[in-house]
Amino acid sequence: MKDASEKQVAICNRVLKGLVKGRQAQSFRHLLSVAIAFIESQQYRHAADYDNARIWVRSDVSTLIAGVNSAFQSWNAIREEPAAQAYLISLLGKPRGN
């Protein structure tokens, strides 16, 4: 899932550096936000699970939660877009045997 999200970030950055404007650009900004939030959330989850030396501060955790909430809002705005659907499918990974 991390690989799919990193690939999506690269795609969004390429698209946004191009000549896209308006609704399409807004959709890719939302999708970029979702993919980045997924990567960051997964990294913090791993830290929470395996880094027993880390001390979590309430304000840091609140910031992380706000970022995830923002990603959910972005997803709701674009979930029907073809690029968002393609990203969703990519999170499932490659079919076994391929």
Task: Summarize the structure in words.
The protein is mostly helical. It has one domain. It contains four helices and no strands. α1 (2-17) runs antiparallel to α2 and α2 packs antiparallel against α3. The longest helix has 29 residues, at 22-50. The model has no long low-confidence stretch (mean pLDDT 91).
Radius of gyration equals: 15 Å
| End-to-end gap | 17 Å
Class computed from helices, strands and strand pairing: mainly alpha
Overall morphology: globular
How are the SSEs placed, and which strands pair?
Layout: H1 2-17, H2 22-50, H3 58-78, H4 82-90
Question: What is this structure, in a nutshell?
Answer:
The chain is mainly α and 98 residues long. The protein has one domain.
